[in-house]
Design goal:
Elements: H1 9-18, E1 22-28, H2 32-44, E2 49-53, H3 64-67, H4 78-81, E3 83-85, E4 91-93, E5 115-119, E6 124-128, E7 133-136, E8 141-149, E9 153-155, H5 159-162, H6 166-170, E10 172-174, H7 178-190, E11 193-197, H8 201-216, E12 220-224, H9 237-249, E13 252-255, E14 260-266, E15 269-274, E16 279-282, E17 284-287, E18 291-293, H10 298-301, E19 312-313, E20 319-321, E21 324-326, E22 331-335, E23 339-342, H11 346-360, E24 372-377, E25 381-387, E26 395-400, H12 408-415, E27 450-457, E28 460-467, H13 473-482, H14 489-494
Parallel strand pairs: 1-2, 1-8, 2-5, 8-21, 10-17, 11-12, 11-17, 12-13, 19-22
Antiparallel strand pairs: 3-4, 6-7, 7-8, 9-18, 14-15, 15-16, 20-21, 22-23, 24-25, 25-28, 26-27, 27-28
Helix pairs in contact: 2-11
Length: 501
């Protein structure tokens, strides 16, 4: 809708009349956490009336395929269809549900059995917690009984790029949304060189995706980051280095230990000057240096923002105030197993959104079910992780020789789930038994075909990476839930059957 100034006043009033002035369940944000909460609310309260308000133009969709599967599609119209082949060969859309699943916002008041309505292109700008109502950017007010904040975050940029002026900013992509996928896809077909800044999940996945494309066209793909290797903040150094070699095989030029000093535009090229004097020339930059949780409503809502982790501070039930919950990237929550955390991953959005939805309908459940995350870098490297995986923690890795079955593709073909979100399947593991004889840390020197990496804090396993080991997440989840000291992690590794062919 146009703004009130351009619209005839009568029409505008009519438009306001159509919007629901009250939503029993109001969900702010239209991402994965919000959709998971809506589904969970409707499952427990079948007549529930749920209103999702999102500032994006799209209905709720999943983000992972934007940096993963969509790039590997053979369909030239993929940027329009946004459909991708899952690893198992079946096709699906990135939208969770087609538009027919939702009801119109103006029908929310009157619809008998309730439903989920989505108000797109609208931003909640003010929150009146005592009055149980919010204000949108067009001054509409909507009151609520229960409210979820699932506002996600905005991609961070490097200050040196923000300060570099308009031309540099115009040639820089901050990657987060459907429109970013569409524009980067277009850029990749029209320029000679793209540089990705950032060595984490998003940066490494995009580097591999574009690298694959570079072999077919004349595109140079560069990835630079301050760490020594890809995923250096997550993986132990030997594994990070090994991963970097795999990323290079995908056609990516890696520039490691790179700190950007300045970026300038010269002779129609971007020049990236590094602090050690190196100079990189490129046509386009993609910055993938993390996410700034969106806490715009903290001030008006009087909500606490966590000074260490960022995000809205909530308790173990994801509650910020008596009828306000927070889920997804923007929630800094208390994990009764691992302490205070904030997690930026698809599966965490699913798990926390679902839990918030249950608690909004009276479940009073704490967060303990660990979400997982996964990343596939090229066809040979796929891993799933759970808990706190941080390369500054002590780690123990146990590896075995990989077979053809130990690839992401083979694993998802077998499991039949397309997008790997383990919480969709909810298996539970029963027993985890470890023996008490100590053994040395095993590092199989250069071939990390498949294995298990344990991350320790005070001798207790707080995180696990399953490296080309698939469909074993319930075992990992149980080890973390039990929170015991293990004398011999080689024995624990046997629970994952990594030595079986």
């Amino acid at each position: 809708f146009p703004s009130s100034s351009t619209m005839h006043v009568k029409q505008y009033k009519k438009y306001l009349e159509h919007l629901p002035s009250h939503a029993p369940y109001l969900l702010i944000g239209g991402g994965t956490a919000s959709f998971a909460a809506a589904r969970s609310i409707r499952a427990r309260d079948p007549g529930a009336k749920v209103l999702i308000v999102t500032d994006e133009p799209d209905l709720p969709y999943m983000r992972p395929p934007l940096s993963k599967e969509l790039w590997f599609s053979d369909d030239p119209s993929v940027t329009e269809t946004l459909r991708f082949k899952q690893w198992n060969g079946k096709e699906r859309s990135i939208y969770f549900q087609p538009s027919s699943f939702y009801i119109n916002p103006e029908e929310l008041d009157s619809v008998e059995n309730g439903g989920v309505a989505v108000l797109t292109g609208k931003k909640v700008v003010h929150m009146d917690v005592r009055g149980n109502k919010v204000k949108l950017d067009d001054d509409t007010e909507i009151s609520y009984d229960k409210c979820l904040i699932a506002t996600g975050g905005v991609p961070r940029n490097l200050q040196v790029i923000e300060r570099a002026g308009e031309e540099v900013m115009r040639r820089t992509t901050l990657f987060r949304k459907i429109e970013d996928f569409r524009s980067l896809d277009k850029v990749s077909r029209n320029v000679k060189s793209i540089t990705i800044i950032g060595g984490g999940f998003l940066g490494s996945e995009l580097a591999c995706a574009l690298g694959r494309r570079s072999t077919e066209s004349d595109l140079e793909v560069i990835q630079m980051f301050p760490e020594k290797g890809n995923m250096g903040k997550v993986l132990p150094e030997y594994l990070s280095n090994w991963t970097t070699e795999k990323v290079k095989k995908e056609g990516v030029k890696i520039i490691s230990e790179a700190l950007v000093k300045s970026v300038t535009c010269k002779d129609d090229k971007l020049e990236i000057h590094l602090k050690d004097g190196r100079l990189v020339k490129t046509d386009h930059i993609v910055t993938a240096v993390g996410l700034e949780p969106n806490v715009d409503l903290a001030n008006s809502g009087g909500l606490e923002v966590d000074s260490d982790f960022g995000g809205y501070r909530v308790n173990a039930e994801l509650q910020a105030r008596s009828n306000i919950w927070v889920a997804g990237d923007a929630a800094c929550f208390y994990d009764i197993r691992l302490g205070r955390r904030r997690v930026e991953h698809h599966d965490h959005a699913v798990v926390s959104g679902r839990l918030a939805g249950e608690n909004m309908t009276g479940a009073s459940k704490p967060y303990w079910h660990q979400s997982m995350f996964w990343s596939d870098l090229g066809p040979d490297v796929g891993y799933e992780a759970i808990g706190i995986v941080d390369s500054s923690l002590p780690t123990v890795g146990v590896f075995a020789k990989a077979t053809a079955k130990d690839t992401p593709k083979a694993a998802t073909e077998e499991s039949g789930t397309g997008i790997r979100s383990e919480s969709e399947t909810e298996d539970t593991a029963t027993s985890a038994v470890a023996s008490v004889t100590p053994a040395p840390v095993v590092e199989n020197k250069d071939d990390y075909g498949k294995g298990v990496i344990f991350y320790l804090r005070d001798k207790v396993v707080v995180g696990i990476i399953l490296w080309n080991v698939f469909n074993r997440m319930p075992v990992a989840r149980k080890i973390i839930k039990d929170g015991e000291e293990h004398a011999d992690l080689n024995e624990v590794a046997k629970l994952f059957n990594i030595h079986e062919d």
